[in-house]
Amino acid sequence: MAKDFSRAFYSSADWERARDAALTRDAHLCQHCLQQGEITPAVMVHHIIELTPANISDPSIATDPSNLVSLCDRCHKKVHGWIRQGATRKGLAFDSDGNLIALGD
Ligand SMILES: [Zn+2]
Ligand SMILES: [Zn+2]
Q: Residues lining ligand 2 (ion), CB within 5 A?
């Protein structure tokens, strides 16, 4: 979910390069699933230290491979804690647009 301060960054060539490099390093697989022995295609590259207006221009955070990890949609939501929000006891979660969705297993 791109916030206003990061919109320009996420369309920059620097990010494109860093994102491609991380996906290639991770073989386009979700690294969290891989730790569980599951093979799941990664759909995005996540910042381990979350981007903030203060650190977005710091290359050691914003584009450094050590701060990037390829994840699938489900693991990414988990990382951001969206699945733990309120409705999850009923098997529901919020997608990246904030819509309530059912978790199919
Ligand atoms: Zn995953
Ligand atoms: Zn993320």
A: 46
